[in-house]
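Illustration 12: Ancillary SecYEG translocon subunit.
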Amino acid sequence: MTTRIENEEIEELKSFWNSYGKPIFIGVLLAIAIVSVWKFWENHQIANKVKEAQNYQLLIFAMSQPLDKVNEADVISIADQLQKANPDSYYAQYAKFYLAKLAVSQNKLDDAAKALKAVLDKPADAALGELSRERLVRVLLAQNKLDEAFALLQAPVEKEFVTTREELKGDVLLKQSKIDQAREAYRAALAAAEADKLGNQLIIKLKLNNLAQEDIK
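Figure caption equivalent — predicted structure in C-alpha cell form:
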C-alpha cells in the first residue's frame, strides 16, 4: 500500500515537473539574471559617483592656485570628464562655474558666457539657476551687452534672490545712463536687504550715494 502511494506521488511529481518544471527553471534563471544585472548596475553607479567626487576634488585643488598659476589644460580636462559623466549633475555644473571664473580671469568673456549659459539653460536647482544668471549678467555687463543683460533680469525671481537681482538691475540701468530707474532698483535692493538682514546693505547704500553725487554735478 505504501509503495503504491509512493509510486503515485512520484508519478504526480513527474507530471508536475513535465508541465511546470521548465517554466519554473527559466523563471529562476531570469530572477538570478535580473538580480545580477541590478547588482552590477548598482555597483557601476556607485563607482561612477565615487569617480565624479574624486574628479571634483581634483578640480577644486587645481583651482585653489592663484588664477594666473592655474593649469588651464588640467581644469578643462577634469571639467570635461565631469560633463561627460553626467552633464546635469551638481559636479558638472559647478565645474562650469570654475571654467567661467578661469575664462574671466583671462578676459575670455565669450567662453565665460558660454559656460554660464549652459548652466542657466538647465540648472540642477533654482539656486544654481539664479547664480548662473547673476554671473552671466556680470559678464554681459563687462561686454557692454546691456540689453541682453537687462533681459535676463526680467525672469521671475524667488524672494531670497531679490536683493541681488535688483542691485544688478541698478548696475545695468546705471550703465545705460538711466539714473532715475537705477535709483529705484537700488532702493528696491536695499529694502529687500534690510528686510532679510543681509550684509551687503553698505554696498547698495554707497551706490545710492554715488547717484546722489551724480545729481549734484
